[in-house]
Amino acid sequence: MKHRIILFFLSLFSCALGVAQPVAVPPSRTTSINALVQYVKSNCSTPYDRLLTIQRWMSQNIVYDVNLVNADLLRPQKVPTSYEYAMFAFKNKRGVCAHFSSLFALLANKMDIKMLQVDGVANGQPHGWCAAVINGQPYLFDPTWTSGGLVDGKYEKGMTMRFFMAHPDSLKFSHIPVDPLFQFSEHPLKFDQAAKRIPANEKDNPYFNWRDTLTTYLAQDSVTRLTSSYQRAIHNGKPDVFNDARIKTMKDNILVYERNRMVTVFNAEVDRCNKMKAEIVNAHDRIAKTKGLTPAGVANISNSLKRLEDELDESVRQLNSINTTDKEFAVQISNMKKNIELVRKRIKQCYSDLEAKQ
């Protein structure tokens, strides 16, 4: 007897949806992402109809490729962006959950539906899905599981609505996000509670204002979003091995972003210092070559020197904002501060020379 598995997993939850019919998209309107989006937008007026139409199109045209699970494509030196995952799926008509969720989110967002991608664990395995708040209500979308499943190890197309526009409560035990924000719950479950299917309680699951937190999250830049997600994750109990790996990756990425930020700040201050050195040389030459300076000329040079002093102070503040444990980098910062002090001495010398010319 054949048993149908929704991409390796069985789900015990379902979601009742409306009876709206998706629009069939002709192949001539799928030559590009924009062509597909424009056709759906022109023929579907509600978010539900639009999302159902793109889900049906994906279910019919994108195949889950089991071979990609262990392929080098998923473990390159440079991890693909969400857009790159989406375009791979669109062009090659195959992929795994990262491709399905990326393409679904890309199409939805281009149709003016704010769709988020969610990483986590689904029925004990690493997985990715989508989420959106539509008309004030949160919904989960799993475009991979909705599109089909595995029968005897082979992928078989076939839409199932259990994972399309599902209420978060219906998937709270099967889909465990690494960031508890995406449980969309006022009492989000801890990792181990969700894994063991233990209901929330007031003691272990205090009130959480997910709506205000989501509003803040959406207004943040990508690095701040990652940092806030990481902070929520590390305070959400003991994760399973896969979410634990995701949390560690989040931490590593934050460290990389911070390192890049520090290097960017340092390089900017190196450029600033070099420009100030050139300006000091010009100011010194003006003072040395001029036999007599008018009051206006003295004021002009004095203002320039004061501006350079202010810039030096700002440069020191920026360098002090760099908090690094890298000894080599710390030495470079220290040397940079010494250069700044040399520039400051040159400015003082210019003031002395200027005073002597008056």
In short:
It is built from 11 helices and 9 strands. By secondary structure, the chain is of the alpha+beta class.
Outline the fold blueprint.
Elements: E1 4-5, H1 33-43, H2 47-61, E2 63-64, H3 82-92, E3 94-95, H4 97-110, E4 116-122, E5 125-134, E6 137-141, H5 143-147, E7 148-151, E8 154-157, E9 175-177, H6 191-196, H7 210-219, H8 222-234, H9 241-289, H10 295-320, H11 327-357
Parallel strand pairs: 2-3
Antiparallel strand pairs: 1-7, 4-5, 4-9, 5-6, 7-8
Task: Describe this protein's structure.
- The structure is a single chain.
- The chain is α+β, with helices and mostly antiparallel strands and 358 residues long.
- It has two domains: 4-177, C8orf32 fold (Roll), CATH 3.10.620; 257-357, Up-down Bundle (Methane Monooxygenase Hydroxylase, Chain G, domain 1), CATH 1.20.58.
- The protein is 53% helix and 11% strand.
- The chain is built from eleven helices and nine strands.
- The protein has helices spanning 33-43, 47-61, 82-92, 97-110, 143-147, 191-196, 210-219, 222-234, 241-289, 295-320, 327-357, and strands at 4-5, 63-64, 94-95, 116-122, 125-134, 137-141, 148-151, 154-157, 175-177.
- It has a four-stranded antiparallel β-sheet with strand order 6-5-4-9. A three-stranded antiparallel β-sheet has the order 1-7-8. A two-stranded parallel ribbon has the order 2-3.
- Strand 4 and strand 5 form a beta hairpin.
- The radius of gyration is 29 Å and the shape is elongated.
- Strand fraction: 5-15%
Helix proportion: 40-55%
- CATH top level of the largest domain is Alpha Beta
Average predicted confidence as pLDDT: 89
The SSE order reads EHHEHEHEEEHEEEHHHHHH
The CATH topology name of the largest domain reads C8orf32 fold
Strand order of the largest sheet: 6-5-4-9
Low-pLDDT regions = 1-19
Rg over CA atoms? 29 Å
Structural class: alpha+beta
Give the CATH architecture of the largest domain.
Roll
Query: What's the end-to-end separation, in Å?
Result: 102 Å
Major sheet characteristics: 4 strands, antiparallel
What's the β-strand tally? 9
